Amino acid sequence: MTSPAAVDVGDALDDLINQFSDSMSFFRELIQNALDAGSAEVEIDFEFQPAGEASEAGDASAAQAGAMVITVQDFGEGMDRQIIDSKLTRLFSSAKDGDMTKIGKFGIGFVSVFAIEPDAVCVDTARAGEAWRVLFDVDRNFKRLRLDQAMEGTTVRIIKNTTRGDYDAFVGRAGEVIRYWCRHARGEVRVRGELISEPFGLGLPLVHRYEDDFSHIEIGHDPIEGLDWEAPNWGAIGQGSHAYFNGGLTLVEARRGHGSVVEDLLGLSFKVSSRYLEHTLTRDDVIKDRNFDKVVTKLRELARGALRDQVFERIDAVVREGDAALWGAFEDVAEASAKPSPALRELVELYAAARWHIRDAKGIGRAHAKLVCARAPSGELLTWGVLRKAVARLGELWVSAGPTPLSRAVEDAKLPVLASFGGAAQLRLAAHEAQARAEALEVEHGDEDARDPGMEAVLGELWEQAREGAPLERSCMTGLLGALADLAEVQGPPRLLGRRRFMPLAPDAAEARKWASLANATARILELGGHKVAGCEFGRFADSGSLLDGRVAISQREFGELTAAEDAGTLGSGLFSRRRVLVVDADHPVVRTLLGVAVREPELAAYQLIKLFFLERGAIEAAADAELAATAMKVRELRCPKPQS
């Protein structure tokens, strides 16, 4: 049996010095030692001492050269000679072994100062009336000196030859490193006089806090990424930060792809500080042991318990409050939406959070299903459970900009429709109206080359407004609509109610008489053409909240009923087809033109009207068009018989 190979002490020390993944980890180690020594404060400072003045020849490099002095001072217990000899200058021995309240447990933290290859290290310390200085040279040889002056705690000075440029870069990064490691330290940590310590926590609006004798946890939802109306990205859930601490000192802050991320909690952020969590030797990760597993189990319990309850209960409360700033109509929706209110931001965050929990749980529990999540246009409160069933049955999500005759009829029919909030549907509706107006003006003013510059400017502004109205799935309602779509397993995008159901309002009697000749001619031509028509009526669709998207007319079983968009073009001619009423949009610009034509030639106007109605379903074959024209001429001849020869 061979004897074990001799250990080179120098190599072992080099390995210890270079074990940390970041050479600046020594800041964390020194601050950690100071806090473990009972210091309530730690002060870090930097100084650059120039080597000399530039020569007469203008040697700029001489002025740049000098020494950097890093000072780390604490006011803790300090060290006496026995501790210096047995702990500071002797590796692998630590008074912290077995004490879970002390963070550094390897007894090797101090050697990390040599990772930046200093030219000298000076440690001044005092304890129980003894004051000592320990000097380390560039080769890490040390000498111990007795000091006469009184002092408190420990001061470590690290001296390294460098240049002014490198010094400035080092100090800049050092501040970032110290803040990363120590911003939640349980004492006050100052860098160049600035307090970098801050209370432990996520600093997020939507969090749950938990604390026991061993752990302090905050877990919550990140703010929505890109909460900006100019470039909306509503409902995008951040990846989250998973951060682990011991005594408030950072062990690791992990994001997607890091081994310490809890994959099933991506989308949430958490910070957990526990005495049972430990860092790896390289100080760049947390040890995955039984204690780590216990912490992760607790995090999952909080995410799927208290945090989930908090999200759904807060939504219920906010929706019940019915803040007019959320659900009310805006006089200037563009201006209001450009600056989302705090109330709107909170609601958007809550809905995005609810969607995360619905996806995580692949549904919603009974208790949460009974909570309110939205309002109908009438103001009726709607629960998750009611909407889940109703939307699943309908297969679509509908939104209304406000209470209208159409929305009231839909609610009376027990169909689900959501009240818009934050001006989302108003913006979309304004875009729709701008597009309709632009299309009408283009028809009215004919060829583009013949339009005057003023009309071109008006059209350009209208088309710009049409483009600005974001679809509902990219509006501030994204979180709610997405959550309901996930719950009800709806595939299609949400739609404005007025595009999915149509309902005309009856004009007054005087208007109806003006339109009678065109209505009668239209009904007669359709009937002679073999279509099952129960008459032709004129109605006002915009006043009800219906959005016909350019249709000149729809068909209904009975005038004034709710009609589905997919049935609005139906007009049968078969034996078993049911008669339907053709309802013409009295406010359509083309219809207004045809009404003028109908004063002298009602059959010609009716032919054009019927053709436009059928074109909504697709192109008309030449033979069908010819037959329609022939029927119109026949009706005209019945009205105006040719004189007998």
TrEMBL record:
Segments forming a coiled coil: none
Domain (Sacsin/Nov): residue spans on this chain: 11-116
InterPro entries for the chain: HATPase_C_sf, SACS/Nov_dom
Database matches in Pfam families: SACS
Superkingdom of origin: Bacteria
Designated name of the protein: Sacsin/Nov domain-containing protein
